[in-house]
Amino acid sequence: MEIALRSAVIAWLRADPGLSAQLNAVVEEVPQRTALPWLAIAASASADWSVKDRPGREVRLALELHCRGDKPDSAASLVAAIEARISSLPAAQPGFQVVTAQFLRARAEQRASNTRAVLLEYRFRLLAD
Questions:
Q1: Are the C-beta atoms of residues 22 and 82 closer than 8 Å to each other?
Q2: pTM, full prediction
Q3: CATH number at residue 12
Q4: Three-state SS for 21?
Q5: pLDDT value at residue 113
């Protein structure tokens, strides 16, 4: 279910017209040659979250936004749009159901050459269909 969730999240983020207009790429891993800003899955991990009659997983998913900006709030509106889109992920997915999707934490850092990285971590609890 972890791999299926990763695919569903990427597809859901790519399908948003507002995000598509602002991001040069929404990908599963760091793109080789893409101009900033872009969004990628930084990492994921899963654990058993099964119930008596169905298998389940708790999946931790970290998304990393790379962008430019010299002000601390440079990416604030883009981060808010990403968070809103994640929170609206449909519960019914092919092969599984999203029971809960919860924001856990974020981390932002200024990097060299006026670039920024923002890490957004979520917890998804899933049950198989």
A1: no
A2: 0.93
A3: 3.30.2000.30
A4: helix
A5: 86
